[in-house]
Amino acid sequence: MSARSNKMNNGSTHELRFTETNSADDSAGKTWGLEGNLFWFIVGGAFASVVMLLLLFSVSHWPLLSALVPSLAPIGLALLYVLAFRQGKPAGYDTDLFELWLKGRGFGPEIPGVGARSTSDDHV
Fold first, then answer.
1. What b/e sequence results for 20-34 when a residue is b if at least 16 CB atoms lie within 10 Å of its CB, and e otherwise?
2. 11: helix, strand or coil
3. Which side of the chain, N or C, has fewer Cβ within a 10 Å radius?
4. Distance CA 73, CA 79 (A)
């Protein structure tokens, strides 16, 4: 009996350890080639375009082609936003960029030579 228990102890030291990792949680996945949940912006733009087309064509009695042109604006804006500001960019890129455009640069100490414009008085 002691030989058998000794053999079991030796065998258990060579087993692989199972360790849980969260490596699969790093990716939000892809849908239609878009990262994470970005496809919902496209779905929302498409929905708004269809609603606008129906309102212009059916309710306002616009000709179909005349109603189609302005109704493409919502999906066009959604595609522009997703592809230009979200797809392949770091998290918060869009909000940081819009904040920079609206409020300008933040305040803080200026680093000499960085972003400063030289005038003719600076040259000797």
1. eeeeeeeeeeeeeeb
2. helix
3. C
4. 10
Q: DSSP E strands: which ranges in the chain?
A: 30-31, 34-35
* Contact (Cβ atoms closer than 8 angstroms) between residue 71 and residue 52: yes
Number of structural domains (the chain) is: 1
Assigned domain for 66 exists: yes
Alpha carbon 108 to its chain's center: 29
| 78 confidence band (pLDDT: 50, 70, 90) | very high
Structure tokens at 23: 């490596």
**Token digits for 40?**
């919902």
Phi, psi of 59 (to 5 degrees): -80, -45
In a domain, 118, yes or no: no
pLDDT given at position 25: 57
Would you state the pLDDT for residue 91?
85
Element (H, E) at 65: helix 64-71
Which tokens is 37 given?
């949940």
Q: Which domain holds residue 94?
A: 36-104
In a domain, 15, yes or no: no
